[in-house]
Amino acid sequence: MKAKLMDFDKALELFEPVLGFEVHVELGTKTKMFSAAPNPAHPEFHGAEPNTLIDPLSLGLPGSLPVTNETAVRYSISLGLALGCEIATSCRFARKNYFYPDTPKNYQISQYDEPIAFEGQVEIELANGRQFTVPIERAHMEEDAGKLTHVGGSTGRIQGAEYSLVDYNRAGVPLVEIVTHMIFGAEHDAPELAKAYVGAIRDIVLSLGISEARMERGNLRCDANVSLRPRGSERLGTRTETKNVNSMRSVERAVRYEIQRQAAILADGGTITQETRHWHEDTGATSPGRPKSDADDYRYFPEPDLLPVEPSRALVEELRAALPEQPVARKRRLKAEWGFSDLEFQDVVNGDMLHLVDATVAAGAAPQSARKWWTGEIARVANERGVEAASLVEPAHVAELQRLIDEGVLTDRLARQALEGVMAGEGSPAEVAEARGLKVVIDESALVAAVDEALAAQPDVLQKIRDGKVQAAGAVIGAVMKAMRGQADAARVREIVLERASG
Amino acid sequence: MEQAPSELTRLPGHELATLIAAGDVSSVEATQAHLDRIAAVDGEIHAFLHVNGGALEQAKAIDERRASGEQLHALAGAPVAIKDVLCTIGMPSTSGSRILEGWVPPYDATVVARLKAAGLVALGKTNMDEFAMGSSTEHSAYGPTRNPWDTERIPGGSGGGSAAAVAAFEAPFALGSDTGGSIRQPAAVTGTVGVKPTYGGVSRYGAIALASSLDQVGPVTRTVLDSALIHDVIGGHDPHDSTSLKREWPSFTAAAREGAASGSLAGLKVGVVKELDSEGIAADVQARFKETVQVLTDAGAEVVEVSCPSFAYSVAAYYLILPAEASSNLARFDSVRFGLRVEQQGQTVEDVMAASREAGFGPEVKRRIILGTYALSAGYYDAYYGSAQKVRTLIQRDFDAAFEQADLLISPAAPTTAFKIGEKIDDPLAMYVNDITTIPANLAGIPGMGLPMGLGDDGLPVGLQLLAPMFEDARLYRAGATIEALLADGWGGILTTKAPELAGGAA
Amino acid sequence: MSEITREDVQHLAGLARIALTDDEVTSLTAELSQIVDAIATVREVAGDDIPATSHPVPMANVLREDVVGETLTHEQAFAGAPSHDGERFRVTAILGEEQ
Q1: Which CATH number belongs to the domain containing residue B159 in this structure?
Q2: Strands across the sheet containing B173-177
Q3: Residue A501 CA to chain centroid, in angstroms?
Q4: Which residues from C are below 8 Å from A when comparing CB atoms?
Q5: Same domain, A406 and A347
């Protein structure tokens, strides 16, 4: 059932949207937050069989005890610093008590009144050039829950399921929860701000190297709080909390949807229920979850099995000194370094491809080539399939594809075919080219003729090769590749050069 | 030297271990003697919930290692009983609860692993109040344990099984756990010795948690030296327990030997805690205590009176902190990953959890979970749990001040001798108040020892409690061994040798 | 003094996930009021100037190196499980949403 929605512009005329976000980041440590079981959010343990990354604590076995992961603490401090937060001189863990089958101890170890980081801000630049500061209330450490699979019923959803299966691999994965203060003044930009904020957190986390930050894998999860305040009123409206938003596009859509839905209810004289809502990617709508009630009495108390964490100022300063630059500053720098035009750069930013282009450049591609791949062919396929570009291909593979073109192994046309294979999961570009027989085919006799011509033009080089200085062949190979306009296999050219020179 | 099997069970643990180490007695013989004793008397006592079917095999393995010339630990081959609160691979670990009936853990508690590594042979698992909630072992889901001195009476609790096993000569050594007196109070009412170490001195990993900030595992034996020997094996830092202390501990065995040899308490300042020697303490217990103070004075100790005014609030603080932590610790018993599941067609998992917990927990456990849930719930936290934690600070300050004046504090270990089974079961509050003498040490984290100081008017054991400052466990063993020797001189042997013979145990 | 009602006990039992019988609710209502009266004395001495002690031995920064340790096998994990499918633990239908 789809709710009644008000036109977005009309909604903004009548109401001011107030936003708030809770973003959970899974840290990519080797082990869990409080035990030495392997962490499924670490690349080494991706795709493990259910209930294999578990130890007594992951199952909440009687007698098991937590011990805090030092690397997770360091990562959390770095993240707090990157969010401009103060780092607590002393902080501690608390138990959040609630029963749920994915929570093995039936309490979550989290931080309550003493988070490790508090009071920061994130600078954001929107597509229209608008600068925005998102105020951060706190960032705290906690542990993830296990995963439920609902079986029976029609949809695989919780409603109507006959039974559920629980995998505790994810139970205990280290999380940092980043909570914003209420965000005022976003106005028409509210949906885009939501997306840009999550993007900024993602960029910060990636630049710190503390998480893979893949939303589709749940490394980064966003709960979006939205309320509306009637124009001219001082009083804040009732908020809803939308969960299960697992792509940046969805964050934007979900915020827009909630603004339109709430506006329609309020305009009809209705009231908003304070509740958790779930985002449905397929229908593009939110649906109500549990209403908030006194059942949410989490009975927090200090975790007696753990001791306070007191980061030394020396450690904080060490981690501060190692911080990468802030996203806005980074954008400015990259634009200058890459030499993109305003239009070209905006294209990359709007497509949320800055980190992808950056990673591709880091893997050896020229900035313009990297940009063309991502905003061109890959964006086209992503659009067509309605998925995130990042989920299609690894930046390193894009760089490899470009290298194969630069070396003359593939033409542009063949490279696009190779990309298709890479996106289909057939392997790296070189593997796909090999398997699909995509290598540049050239007339052998034309190559031999070109080699002979180049050798004749550089008799001194020929002599050097004959004297055994094989590395001198490079000059001849270059000349041949140039003559063949790059569409020759450099390795084969080398073979022919050595063959003809000795013959 | 030839020993009749029945005599082996009456030897103090250290003597039995010495015979085994010398090759005079094999571990198989020692283990068999205790298994025979269990078979003979445990029908009457019910100290054991599970007897280890692999005990003789483990004993044999130790004998073979010794025969092959391997250097073994001084206690290797000696039998030991383990409180059911501790996780043991291959033996059910139920914490006295129906909800864990038959549950066999896939891992050993650190203390159990250390006993194994030293070559001790586990005889089995001992009975206890469900999840260690109680002072009488009547709250075990598997029926009460009986006091070997009078089988109509309670053996104390929660570790009544371990104390009774040791008192009835079913085991020379046992492990207990002490959250508010569960080692010291059973020792007092069974005429045995039990030690609650400094909090963090012994690992809690694999001990099924009652109240995490109060629980501590410790030894239960018939002599002070035997407790020291076990403490030396199980103690020390464990990286699996965040609250475990990283310290170099002195040898408690050496301290106990020195104390027993010296025969003098000259230079020792002993504080009598005024608040633990008055109201609610039975007349015969007070009388034995006075006599003991005189023995201490005669042995050269300087006895002073100290006051700990905040102790008046200790029972109240304890019965807030314990239920609060327990309500959270016991939340994991939800029928999903382990334990009892009670299920009916068409029920949701929420219903199944609630029905399983209703069926699996006994009345005392439910009472404390509800109380703890109340103490932590919104709007009450500051008034109850928060205030209780402040009382903890006050009690620590009282101890700090008292230990300015005295090296050791003494008090009766329990207000009365063992009461009759069923006598207090319907009056939880009366049962709670009984813990007044032992609770302050848990709230402050300091070490304490319970040891015999004679018999009451009813002929039942009366216990003395020694308390030492944080980290000074060795002081307990040194003074405890001296006091034990002085009192035994007066009695003509340690107190447990005076216990009446059990019907099934006549050799 | 402390007014603990049947409804309070039922609410607490809900939070603690215990399906108490009516008789249990009745007896716990009486007992709890009595116990709470007795333990409420802690409030008398808990002044604002007194710090709370949540842990008897003051320590901090007990941290573990990020090194993988032993894991449980499926056989170990499921040995005590009331219901499982060989890979996952099995529970009946869930009513409420995730927290």
Answers
A1: 3.90.1300.10
A2: B48-51, B121-126, B79-83, B173-177, B217-221, B193-196, B448-455, B461-467, B408-412, B269-273, B302-306
A3: 52
A4: 11, 14-15, 17, 54-55, 59-72, 74, 77-78, 85, 87-94, 96-99
A5: yes
Q: ipTM exceeding 0.90? A: yes
- Contact indicator for A465, A472 with CB cutoff of 8 Å: yes
For residue A74, what are the CA distances in angstroms to A95, A211, A312, B353, B376?
A: 21, 13, 11, 38, 31
| pLDDT of C99 | 44
Q: Are residues A236 and A347 in the same domain?
A: no
By three-state DSSP, how is residue A73 classified?
Answer: helix
**Catalytic annotation, residues of B:** 83, 158, 182
C94: closest chain A residue by CA = A158
Quick one: pLDDT band at residue A157, thresholds 50, 70, 90? low
Residue A209 lies in a domain: yes
CB A254 within 8 A of CB A198: no
> What is the token pair recorded at A282?
């397929």
Q: Does residue A337 share a domain with residue A295?
A: no
Residues A361 and A463 in one domain: no
Range of the domain at B209: 5-309+397-505
Measure in Å the smallest separation between the Cα of A103 and chain B Cα atoms. 9
- Sole residue written with tokens 């009056």: B427
pLDDT value of residue A331: 83
Say whether pLDDT at A349 is over 90: no
Q: Alpha-carbon distance A169 to A297, whole Å? A: 27
Scanning every residue of chain C, which has its alpha carbon at the shortest distance from the alpha carbon of A295? C15
Question: Which residue would you say has higher pLDDT here, B204 or A464?
Answer: B204
pLDDT, residue C97, reads 53
Domain extent for A228: 8-94+109-145+173-317
pLDDT digits (tens, 9 = 90+) for B261-274: 999 999 999 999 99
Last residue of a domain, one of A436, A453, A477: A436
Question: Could you tell me if A66 and A34 are in contact, meaning their C-beta atoms sit under 8 angstroms apart?
Answer: yes
Q: Is C18 on the interface with B (CB under 8 A)?
A: yes
Check: CB of residue C80 under 8 Å from CB of residue B338: yes
Phi, psi of A205 (to 5 degrees): -65, -40
> C68-92, pLDDT tens digit by residue?
999 999 999 999 999 999 999 999 9
Q: For residue C13, which amino acid is it?
A: A
Whole-number pLDDT of residue A292:
54
Q: Do A99 and B385 touch (CB under 8 A)?
A: no
DSSP state of B159: S
Cα–Cα distance measured from residue B137 to residue B140, given in angstroms and rounded to the nearest whole number:
6
Lowest mean pLDDT among A452-461, B191-200, B321-330, B433-442: A452-461
Closest alpha carbon to B177 in B153, B148, B203, B139: B203
Q: How confident is the model at residue A158 (pLDDT cuts 50, 70, 90)?
A: low
C17–B349: do the CB atoms touch at under 8 Å? no
Contacts of B240 in chain A (CB under 8 A): 65, 67
What does the DSSP 8-state code read for residue A45? G
DSSP, res A387: S
Please give, rounded to a whole number of angstroms, the shortest distance from the CA of A31 to a CA of chain B: 14
A188 plus A289 within the same structural domain:
yes
pLDDT in tens, A291-302: 655 457 999 999
The tens digit of pLDDT for each residue in A420-448 reads 999 998 999 989 888 887 776 567 787 88
Has residue B138 got a pLDDT over 90? yes
Establish if A424 touches chain C: CB-CB under 8 angstroms: no
Indicate if A401 and A455 belong to the same structural domain: no
The domain total for chain C is 1
Is residue A133 domain-shared with residue A73, that is, in the same domain? yes
Nearest Cα neighbor of A253 from A224, A233, A229, A276 is: A224
The model's confidence at residue B493, banded by pLDDT at 50, 70 and 90, is confident
| B381 vs B373: CA distance, rounded Å | 10
Query: Is the distance from CB of A180 to CB of A139 less than 8 angstroms?
Result: no
Omega within 30 of 0 (cis) for the link into B158: yes
Rounded CA-CA distance C54/A477 in Å is 75
